[in-house]
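Structure ticket #2291
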Amino acid sequence: MAVMIVFDFDKTILDCDSDNWVADGLGFTKSFEELTSTMPWNLAMDIVLGKMHSQGITIEDIADCLRKAPLIPHIASTIKTAHSLGCELRIVSDANTFFIETILKHHDLLDCFSEINTNPSIIDNQGRLRIFPCHDLTSPNCISNLDSCPPNMCKGQIIERIKANAEEGKKKIIYLGDGKGDYCPMLRLKKEYFVMPRKDYPVWELICCNPSKIKAKICEWSVGEELERTLLNLVRLINFFEDHKADFNNADVVLSTALDCKFQLVALSPHKAFALPPVPL
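Resolution: structure written out below.
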């Protein structure tokens, strides 16, 4: 399989923010809002989890809350289908290991992912959940020198490593995200790759300010059904071009094809075209 799909987590797989979901669901909304107004989000969440522990909230209470968090509609079937087609799936998220793994396990999705890049978490000997920054808070982290990367994580740094791995395996990358932190990695992807920003979310707004900065092909999405159709069509088309040894980089019609599952021809050159089978969704 010639495709590597990289997902953000909050508001891309999960249809909410996992930190907010836990803070709201366990009665710590006010504390969390006060802390995030004065310190990095990641550190604020660790402090809130400490407050929860001191008030008798257990790890299982947190896990129960997480299991109730809603997924983006159609995302579970999309992930399972992409995995069954042989795509390599990874996560790059500013959530944390415990939140992501708990939710993915609950929906039988964890084994679909080969790698989860996020803020590490541990349960200490007192049973308290701790969250740590992915990157060192004391030094500048953004590889692109952007304000959009939070101090604890530059997804651009992570995508550079993933990109090197993908190129070694001759795989095309599709990157999906919604937040400001997804802008840096999207900037670092080449023209033969794809980015799928969630329309009318912060990363989409940043892209709209200067679309020419993004070298990768842009395929927007708004709702889960649109994400599913577009992503699986892209997977299918990338593999189609690969199988036919076609010049993928110059075949811009791939975009219109991917966004319209009724369109059944891909023009590989002025003299050659191939019929594609219907997309199973």
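Closing remark: The longest helix spans residues 224-243.
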